[in-house]
Amino acid sequence: MNAVLATILKRLGLGFATLVVVSAIIFSSVSMLPGDFGQAVLGQSATEETVAAFRKELGLDKPAPVRYFEWAASVLQGDLGTSFSGRNASGQDRSRQVVDLVMPRLWNTLFLAGVTALIAVPLALFLGLTAALYRNSAYDRAVNAATLTTISTPEFFVAYILILFLASLWPVFPSLANIDASTALGERLYRVALPALTLTLVIVAHMMRMTRAAIINLLASPYIEMARLKGASQSEIILKHALPNAWAPIATVIAFNLAYLVVGVVVVEVVFVYPGIGQLMVDAVTSRDIPVVQACALIFAATYILLNLTADIIGIVTNPRLLHPR
Amino acid sequence: MTNEPGDRNEILLEMRDIRIDGFSDEQWHPIIKGVDLTLRRGEIMGLIGESGAGKSTLGKAAMGYTQPGCKLTGGSILFDGIDLARARDREKRRLWGTRIAYVAQSAAASFNPAHRLIDQTVEAANRRGLRPDAESRADAVELFKALQLPNPETIGSRYPHQVSGGQLQRIMTAMAMSPRPDLIIFDEPTTALDVTTQVEVLSAMRNIVEEFNTAAIYITHDLAVVAQMADFIKVLRYGEEVEQAPTRQMLTRPEQPYTKSLWSVRALEKPEVKGEDIVLSIDHVDAAYGPIKVLHDVNISIPRGRTVAVVGESGSGKSTTARVITGLLPPLSGSVSFNGEPLPAALKDRSKDQLQKIQMIYQMADTAMNPRQTVEEIIGRPLEFYLGLTGKAREARVIKLLEMIELDESFMDRLPSELSGGQKQRICIARALAANPEVIICDEVTSALDQIVQEGILQLLLRLQKEYNITYLFITHDIATVKAISDEIVVMLQGKVVEQGLKSEILSPPFPDYTKLLLSSVPEMDPDWLTNLLAARNS
User: Fold this and answer.
1) CB contact under 8 A, A245 and B63
2) How many CA atoms does the CB half-sphere of B399 hold within 13 Å?
3) Could you tell me the residue range of the domain that residue B347 belongs to?
4) Which CATH number does the domain housing residue B254 bear?
5) Is the minimum CB–CB distance between A6 and chain B shorter than 8 Å?
6) Regarding the domain with residue range A110-286, which homologous superfamily does it belong to in the CATH classification?
7) Mean pLDDT of all residues in A238-266
8) Which ranges of B217-273 does DSSP label H, i.e. alpha helix?
9) Which of residues 126 through 185 in chain A touch B, CB cutoff 8 A?
């Protein structure tokens, strides 16, 4: 057990190191964004002195490595900095803390991702296992064809089709998913129904196909034949003999899709006007609000690393060779 | 479930005119072509034949099971009045694991890595609710005891990767035995084990089958093993029955020429010749893989033009010794000398000339050849690399080498996948010969081959030795092979050399303890061998 704990701690350390490298990459690529924030805010007519003074106020005059270390140090202390927007040269400061901008949006995104995952993951596992169970049957083919269709359709298209049928023709759910901090839980669930359904259709195929493939891959093992010759039924073989050995690849693909739910859903957010973190980041890039862009990118990177780490850990604890060494 | 000794004459299993097709190369081929089989309660039948003879397929068919890619096309399988050829899956599943049990060849692969051994042992009995769970578990512990497993009370709580291959094989027998079946199919259960382990597993299996008067079909390619287990033997070839007879009669008076040829392989024995001129010597070699030390002060000297056989169980350091000699694994200390001169420890420091003189042949001819190269390219490569032969000269030499290994130039353009197992190994021999070596290291070169093919390869190696005065270092765990080919024998155990000497010295008393154990564990073609051996060991 201690060996497993040590492995997990080692992976956590590695994950953190990856995050440090990624932060450097984020910082340097944001610095390479074309255009200048000062110029953009103050307009073409601003004199060079005004722009320089404004840059100085924001700290943009310092050399890049210094700015990186200042930023990294404050992030480590939980301070993501102050947003650039809302400032102006008149000296009146209406800017907000990045944390205050990002956190509500992040919660919204996690809420939508959570609701989607609660529907999609069990559904994908169920479909994958049953498809493996009734391999090559009409059911298997139907499930495969249906999920392939949804994954091959652009997500905005899926979204509009759902709006057409479930909001317009039969108005069951609202087509706008605008929520704020004061929205009650029941109302929230009702409003995110369509975006959650859209995302479910998008991610189920991948997870379902991987589950099916991982199980079928194991069905050729001698121990599966042995289980069959011990009189196990087909469903027993799949649930009791194949699934416990298939968790590692399944967990990996689930983690990948959950990460997508956090970092890749901006199109769906736009369609349903959902105040998620993806939209925030796109807006921040447009207005060259560097601290917000960096904060979002860092959160996305951390999401990927954390979810993949979780998948690795699931892979370790479901492998008796690692859990119970000789 | 009841096996009264009184119903011993009752027919338990009757298979009539069994025909099975297998799917390969895009079409169906017959694998079993009309075989009959009758088994009475408590009887043990030995089913022998070479690989591809259809033994396993027939064994599984006795359960009414055909693997994916095979189908039963004709015949009836009457098990205790139920026709398994026509029974529905649900009906067959009720029998499998409870009244008919299966013991697979590779126990390591046939246990589910995710579950504890005890859970897998009692699974089949519990599924049909034969007994309360606690009773099944207590019974499993009793079976573990009967099978002489260490720590029978606790071994069940381990996972498959935590116990050894021999123990797994015995636990699998316990698993088969747990619901007290009427019939057990043993599918080459000891083939993957070392001889010393094999004896323990065989005796454990035989005792338990006798104790519960269980009928069994024992599938193997090893005649001596089947002689210990079976009441009668059926010989299969190309999916057809060659002959069937009670064990003693089959061993002493086989009727068919094919059966006789199977028997004769073991008779091959080369007279030993003492050698004086030492071509290769290994002096005080210690070697390790990472922190794990595998060779301890190994000393071996190999005389020119002779065969030195290195014997020992898996893990005794035989192959590691070969890796040290070839330079693949530089030793921690000690040296390897060739013609009196020390060889550089690492492969990369050796000259082309030094590399050329020591060649290697591997156990798995399949994986030792590039599957995309033709025979001409495979044999031609060392000719070009060591001897600088190209074009016509190279081609002529390849043809000559093919003749030396008793093949002809029609093989030049073939790919390894178009060759049989024995032909592949011959090509590997030709590749080693191409370099004009003085020493060839043969690492288990016949273990993956059937007995008749083995004999051909061994004869070929002996002829080549005589004609070209080649020296062999022959690594094997099979004593019959050792008798057939060696002049001198080195016995290894746990990375140490137990003894080295002429074949006649090593194979005759007095023996050191380990050599005695090793030699006495080699099954002999005598049905009483195991009984006598166990009696001798217990006294």
Assistant:
1) no
2) 8
3) 278-508
4) 3.40.50.300
5) no
6) MetI-like (1.10.3720.10)
7) 92
8) 223-229, 247-252, 257-264
9) none
